[in-house]
Amino acid sequence: MTLLAKTIELIDAANSKDPNLVKDENNKEWPKELLYSIRMTDMLSRFRPDADDVAKISMRGQHVQRWTSDRKTFPMDRQGYLLWRTQLYKFHANTTADFMQQAGYDEESIERVRKAVGKRGIKVNPDTQLLEDVTDLVFIEHYMLAFAEKHAEYDEEKWLDIIRKTWQKMSESGQQFALSGNIKLPEPLVPLIQKALA
Description:
Layout: H1 3-15, E1 21-23, E2 29-31, H2 32-47, H3 53-61, H4 78-103, H5 107-117, H6 126-150, H7 156-169, H8 172-179, H9 190-197
Antiparallel strand pairs: 1-2
């Protein structure tokens, strides 16, 4: 078994324990974070088919065991949210790095994954930017519509702001890919997306 296959196996085994179950577009039930990580891998293979092991592991490990850190254990304000997010980045980065060590990866590769999954150096670190692009593409294709349905209280202005902020985090090649017909845009939100990007 390759180092990559061994690492993916460890991440998938961890994510398979997610008690939160969700259904995919074919109505098949999955542990939530396992499905998310598979969608990240799928998007990477479409967006950057020549990606290296570091990229493949970063995508798969980005949300590893996310359910173990409960948002409700942090203050329910903006400050609490940011604290939770920062703690999560470190947790995901260190957990993924541990799995790579178990599989036998070299320190340089492990450190690259730690930086990418830890969201360090977006816009300047290519590994982190690639992870950000794929995260945003997966959000647009699979999660944006459900997010919109969950937040019916958001007005159009708030939505235009969310779409623009997501867009600004992406690289130019990520933006082009999003509009190239390579991803499925959430149909009810297409007019809003077009307006936000006009």
